[in-house]
Automatic annotation (TrEMBL):
It holds the Pfam family PMT_2. GO terms for biological process: lipopolysaccharide biosynthetic process. Its main location: membrane. GO terms for molecular function: pentosyltransferase activity. Residues 53-213 form the Glycosyltransferase RgtA/B/C/D-like domain. The chain crosses the membrane at residues 12-34, 74-92, 104-122, 152-183, 195-213, 243-265, 285-305, 311-327, 334-355. This is Glycosyltransferase family 39 protein.
Length: 492
């Protein structure tokens, strides 16, 4: 222990990294359940080769942690924290191949200080395992290419496959890898190497469960992830709001200093390439190959499509290494100040819920909703419970309640992976139900006064009950409309 403390005193960078991670660990017990936590926990409780929205890696990890540490919100948060901590360690190893000791320390502080690391540490998303396997893939590919260690071609293929088993955007790993070889004067010859092709074949083989699940289910997941987005992009409607929204998201995730460094070196390399026709080579090209397709590629879509804030996260790995080559000590200090301020504000929101969140994407109120729903079931015996908001309310109630909770497939609407749980809805025929409907823009405690017309197609009678009002710190913070529905009849 004394040796560890001595190391922290000597190495300020490691001290900062340890401090940020300790801060996050201390906050873990105070974090409530997010809808994403509950939904991917549902993945783990219904093991499958893959799932409708995403591949299943995050669900598998949550299943492992909840089996070991028990079903609790803390177990789920701990899974995210531990996986992300391994991502930080993997990043440190990867960055050491490219940076001097001083620049390596700056890079690891840059990474650990970001908001996106905090988000990954607290919230279950497919990006949590994706970032880990993405980083491990780059370590293996580096070893295979620059150190000519053949076994790392195999390990790299496995890691790339596991990244795809985490999230489909991992396909950009293979794209970046091939782009690096295409533009590299020295390493283009690797296209003739059987090891390179073995690596790619292994990466595809490891993704077999995802492809097989899609084959069994009419490629539903691939269609869901591509068709709607392709249609929106093809419309080509310019939206400044989307563009500036993306900039705001990235400045939040990376913090302003790091984001501006990203923009600066991106401009520098693009200018050099387009005006001087000088394409970076060697290790710099390697880093850019796994940065440009994801960061620049998605940014180019922002004027015509709403790019989600997490889509660019994989590019941060090599992007931060590149930033470590340019950033000054002074800017590092400013980055840390920004980070401390943001994290203090974040912790105050977690602990005291100072600013109400007008959305279902919140960590408060779900357990209280489950308690109130159980009370309603006692007043209305033999009722099942369902909701209609894609997955959020249904998944959260499923986590906190013993009874099975249903989604909007009860009334014939698409319900994401709830449609693939194998439920026979006809066993609910003639039963009564409680329909829980979240009031996202909670303004008053009144009843809704109307209900979804689809309910009338499946139930004999629909009666609105008093809404459930959730108080946080003595303040009315969340509201859920409740409808008592009788005599359910599933449509064939």
């Amino acid at each position: 222990m004394n040796k560890f403390i001595s190391t922290l005193k000597k190495n300020k960078a490691i001290s900062w990294v340890f401090g940020f991670q300790l801060f996050r660990l201390i906050l873990l017990p105070f974090m409530g359940l997010m809808p994403q936590d509950a939904y991917y926990y549902l993945y783990g409780q219904n093991l499958s080769l893959s799932y409708f929205d995403h591949p299943g890696m995050i669900g598998y990890f949550l299943r492992i942690f909840t089996d070991i540490f028990g079903q609790s919100v803390f177990s789920i948060k701990l899974a995210n924290f531990v996986i992300t901590s391994f991502t930080i360690l993997s990043f440190y190893k990867l960055a050491s191949y490219f940076l001097s000791k001083q620049k390596l320390q700056r890079a690891i502080v840059l990474l650990a200080s970001t908001i996106f690391i905090s988000i990954l540490s607290f919230n279950s998303t497919p990006d949590v395992p994706l970032l880990l396997f993405w980083t491990l893939s780059l370590i293996c590919l580096y070893k295979a290419i620059f150190e000519e260690k053949k076994w790392f071609w195999i390990l790299g293929g496995i890691a790339m496959g596991l990244a795809f088993d985490s999230k489909y955007t991992a396909l950009l790993l293979q794209i970046g890898f091939i782009a690096f070889l295409l533009f590299s004067n020295k390493y283009r010859k690797l296209f003739l190497s059987p090891w390179m092709w073995i690596s790619l074949i292994i990466s595809v083989a490891v993704t077999f469960p995802v492809w097989y699940w899609n084959y069994q289910n009419e490629f539903a997941s691939f269609a869901f992830q591509s068709s709607e987005r392709t249609s929106s992009i093809s419309e080509f409607k310019i939206s400044p709001k989307n563009f500036f929204g993306a900039i705001g998201h990235q400045m939040f995730l990376l913090l302003p200093v790091l984001f501006l460094v990203f923009i600066t070196f991106t401009y520098k390399y693009i200018k050099r390439t387009l005006l001087k026709f000088k394409i970076p080579q060697g290790k710099t090209l390697f880093l850019l190959a796994f940065f440009v397709p994801t960061f620049i590629g998605f940014f180019c879509l922002t004027p015509i499509y709403w790019v989600k804030l997490n889509w660019m996260m994989p590019s941060y790995i090599t992007g931060i290494i590149l930033a470590g080559m340019f950033i000054s000590k002074k800017l590092i200090k400013i980055q840390i100040i920004f980070s401390i301020v943001f994290h203090v504000l974040f912790s105050l929101q977690i602990l005291f819920y100072l600013v109400p969140i007008k959305s279902d994407d919140t960590w408060v109120g779900w357990k209280e909703l489950a308690i109130e729903t159980k009370k309603l079931q006692e007043k209305h015996p033999n009722t099942f419970v369902f909701s209609d908001d894609n997955y959020k309310t249904s998944a959260c109630l499923n986590f906190f309640m013993d009874d099975k909770i249903y989604a909007q497939n009860i009334i014939g609407l698409p319900a994401l992976h709830f449609d693939y749980l194998g439920d026979n809805l006809s066993i609910l025929n003639n039963k009564n139900a409680l329909f829980i409907d979240s009031d996202k823009r909670f303004k008053n405690t009144n009843k809704k006064g109307k209900h979804n017309p689809l309910l009338d197609h499946y139930f004999s009678n629909v009666t609105e009950l008093e809404p459930i009002i959730i108080k946080i710190n003595g303040k009315e913070s969340r509201k859920f409309w409740v409808f008592y529905c009788t005599n359910y009849q599933a449509k064939k």
